[in-house]
Amino acid sequence: MYEHLKNAGNVFDVFKHGVLMKAVESKPPLVYFESHCGFASYEKPELWESSWIKVQRESNCHCFLCDTNCNIHLSVLEACKEIGPYFTFFCADGFEVSDNYARQEVPPDLFFVDPPYKDDSDWKRVMDLTTTFNEVKAEWILWYPIFANGLTFKPEVPAIEMYWTTKENLHGCGMAICGDFDMNEIRNCLSFLQWCVSAKEVKIYD
């Protein structure tokens, strides 16, 4: 079981944000959609901002954000005071809203899917959503955990995975990347990112 609120700011998040920001840097979106946005910041020894704040600052895009926790809306509004009114928040199921927006005549430029993976249904819904994205030719990035028991997402698109030496069931994570991104630029940051998060291994799937 992976609980994001307990793990915000850990090595998995650093890897996730590092790869996401490199992709956004290579191709800045005008409209960005995040399926499970979380709070603007978390209680950590130092401020840990959510991915959507980093993406907005990098690309000056409009961000559509989903989460079923309506208290997060207050966190989004607070962030807007600092960086401007570039956000639309839906207190709704991120899988459903992502699917709806992907089917629009002009979908967002980039979908970032980052669900909590609380139960088996999340894995099926991830598969269904990425199938929709591929049908409508949307560009998307997905974060997924890698468990020692073999439970993980099996990407059929370019992906990067990092692994750590740990006795815990969660011992790695990956980013599946589907879109016209500069994969060479993303690969170029991996050695430094691996060093930053003390990962034992990196796997790249083209």
If classified by CATH, what would the architecture be? Answer: 3-Layer(aba) Sandwich
N-to-C order of helices and strands: HHEEEHEHEHEHEEEHHE
* Uncertain runs: none
- Helix-strand category: alpha/beta
First CA to last CA: what distance? 28 Å
Strands, total number: 10
**Strand composition percent:** 15-25%
Instruction: Please give the CATH class.
Output: Alpha Beta
Radius of gyration from CA coordinates: 16 Å
Mean pLDDT, nearest integer?
86
Q: Give the overall form.
A: globular
- The CATH homologous superfamily corresponds to Vaccinia Virus protein VP39
**Oligomeric description of these chains:** single chain
Query: In order across it, which strands form the biggest sheet?
Result: 5-4-1-6-7-9-8-10
What is the CATH topology? Rossmann fold
Please report the number of helical segments. Answer: 8
Count structural domains: 1
Helix amount: 25-40%
